Each structure stands twice: as C-alpha cells, then as structure tokens.
Amino acid sequence: MRILSESPIPLSPREILERIPEPRPDASTVYRSLSLMISLGLVRSVALHERSRRYEAVTEGTHRHRVVCRGCGRIESFQPKKCDLSRIENDIRGALGFDVSDHSLEFFGACAECGRKKGRGR
C-alpha cells in the first residue's frame, strides 16, 4: 500500500514488485494483495492507453488525471484545480440511467523533452 501511496503515477504489478525490497514475494502474491485492496476500496484499477492495468491508492480528496507522451510513453499525473464534469455525468445518467461514481481522464501528446526533440528535427 505504501508503494502505491508514494507513487505519483499508477503502477503495473511488475513495477510494484520491483519496488518491494528483498526478499520479494512472488507475482501471484502481488496480484492477490491488489485484489484484496481493491475489494476493500483502498486501491483502484486504472485502464490506461496501453492494454495492461495499473493501480493507484485511493486517497480522500485526491482527484488526478494523466498525460501520456506518445513519443516516449512517459505517464504523468496531475491534479486539476477544477474538474467539473457534472454536465457530462448528468447526460450519462439521463441517456443511460448510469450513476457515475468516478472517472479517469487521459490526455495524449508530447512531453517537454519529446517536444524539444521534435522541434530540433525540423
């Protein structure tokens, strides 16, 4: 739990395992622990642009979105000053009868470093 709480970005099970000090548990223990923490509401599963799942700690009052660099694959999280999607949530509720409890938002583009590299290639 500490590893996820201290990470500014969601982590894959492999990344979690790599951050656990020796002696490390096996991968199945990490997956079982993640499943338990999800069922307890301590961790949430995040589906990013890639096909693998990542995980992050659920913290009260923290609302993050992610930016994904298409050049190098870097993922960064940021906490918006304001995230008002209430109109979209109301549209979803009205059209589908679906009660939104949370959302995940990603922005794609070029990080500062890849942007500089691209600018030099012109």
Task: Please write out the topology.
Blueprint: H1 2-6, H2 13-19, H3 27-39, E1 43-47, E2 53-57, E3 65-69, E4 75-78, H4 86-96, E5 106-109, H5 112-120
Parallel strand pairs: 3-5
Antiparallel strand pairs: 1-2, 3-4
Provide structural commentary.
It is a single chain. With 122 residues, the protein is of the alpha+beta class. It is built from 5 helices and 5 strands. The protein has 2 domains: 1-60, Arc Repressor Mutant, subunit A (Orthogonal Bundle); 63-122, Dna Ligase, domain 1 (2-Layer Sandwich). Strand 1 (43-47) and strand 2 (53-57) form a beta hairpin. Helix 2 crosses helix 3 (27-39). The strands form 2 sheets. The chain has a 3-stranded mixed beta sheet with strand order 4-3-5, with no helix packed on it. Strands 1-2 form a two-stranded antiparallel ribbon. The chain is flat, with a radius of gyration of 17 Å.
Brief sketch in words of this structure:
The chain is α+β, with helices and mostly antiparallel strands and 122 residues long. The protein is built from 5 helices and 5 strands. It has 2 domains: 1-60, Arc Repressor Mutant, subunit A (Orthogonal Bundle), CATH 1.10.10; 63-122, Dna Ligase, domain 1 (2-Layer Sandwich).
* Binned strand content: 15-25%
CATH class descriptor name of the largest domain: Mainly Alpha
Unreliable sequence segments: none
Helix content: 25-40%
Average of per-residue pLDDT values: 84
| Rg, Å, rounded | 17 Å
